[in-house]
Design brief:
Blueprint lengths: L8 H21 L8 E5 L4 E3 L4 E6 L10 E4 L2 E3 L5 E4 L8 E6 L9 E6 L3 E5 L3 E3 L4 E7 L6 E7 L2 E8 L2 E4 L8 E9 L2 E4 L3 E6 L1 H45 L7
Parallel strand pairs: 2-8, 10-17
Antiparallel strand pairs: 1-3, 3-6, 4-5, 4-7, 7-8, 9-11, 11-14, 12-13, 12-15, 15-16, 15-17
Length: 255
């Protein structure tokens, strides 16, 4: 006697797993492959003093005939449409985040500009580095006035002293380079002290993992929860089907 049909667990589970795979791959599938604009600072320091000259360069990887560049400062549009944006003498209002794009390209990376009002400033390209990166510190004076007897400090310990102004360069940073930095120097006969800058050096592997977790773990757990619910439903459905088929199937009588 032909057995009554019952759904096959393997087929149902395979279909569910296929949907799970598609959901997990959805963020990657949504990418349209359009090249993103790249925004850089010139000079590269993210922190500057009032009156400094700063140029932002927007590099767009697009075919000829693209539309003009669109600039954003703290999310608001700027009346600038060239590939570069020069501020001859920055002021406090120029602080903030900058981005650029064209009509047909995604927004560029965000570049932060921090403008300070002081006599002396310890300049750095950014506040976070990966192990193995090169790091350059610059002790910068207001209006680039002559600076001498310069000393760099890390966690209140003197790193290096020279009579004339110089850049402090670390070819390859590691976790020991994390901490607070500042510099001192003489402008004429007056000693000046910069504000402290806190720098963090990260291991690239945990950083990559953290980024992955942030972008994918939440949807992953949602999908896993849905999968659990579907599997539970399938289990009880199959159980009812099997019990029902047993009741409807007559057992052969011996004798």
């Amino acid at each position: 006697m032909r057995r009554p049909w019952a759904p096959q667990p393997g087929t149902a589970t395979s279909s569910v797993l296929l949907w799970v795979a598609l959901l997990c791959l959805a963020p990657a599938i949504r990418s349209d492959g359009r090249p993103r604009a790249v925004l850089t600072l010139e000079p590269p320091w993210f922190n500057v003093l009032q009156g400094d000259k700063v140029t932002l360069n927007c590099k767009v990887f697009q075919t000829p005939g693209h539309h003009s560049i669109k600039w954003l400062h703290n999310g608001s549009a700027l009346p600038i449409h060239q590939n570069s944006y020069t501020i001859p003498a920055v002021n406090m209002e120029n602080s903030g985040e900058y981005q650029c794009r064209t009509e047909h390209t995604p927004l560029s990376n965000s570049v932060k500009l921090q403008v300070s009002s002081d006599w002396l400033l310890l300049q750095v390209e950014r506040l976070e580095f990966m192990e193995g990166d090169s790091m350059t510190l610059r002790c910068h004076s207001w209006r680039s006035q002559p600076l001498n007897k310069v000393t760099y400090y890390h966690n209140d310990q003197a790193l290096k002293y020279e009579f004339q102004s110089f850049d402090y360069i670390v070819p390859k940073v590691n976790y020991t380079h994390s901490g607070s930095y500042y510099c001192t120097g003489f402008m004429g006969h007056i000693s000046q002290l910069s504000a402290t800058v806190v720098i963090t050096v990260q291991d690239p592997r945990p950083s990559t993992s953290s980024s992955f977790k942030f972008r994918y773990y939440v949807p992953f757990y949602i999908v896993m929860g849905l999968l659990f619910a579907v599997d539970t439903g399938l289990y009880f459905t199959l159980k009812r089907e099997v019990n029902s088929s047993k009741k409807n199937t007559k057992c052969p009588v011996s004798g």
